Amino acid sequence: MYEKLNKAVSNMSSDTFICLCDDDKLDPTFIEKTTKLMEEKDADLVGTWLENFGDEQGVHQPGYVPFVTALCKKEIWERVGGYDPSAGMAADWDFYWLCKEQGAKIEYLNEPLFKRREHPQQVSKIGDWEASGRYIRHKHGDQAHP
Question: 2-118+128-140 has which CATH code?
Answer without folding.
Answer: 3.90.550.10
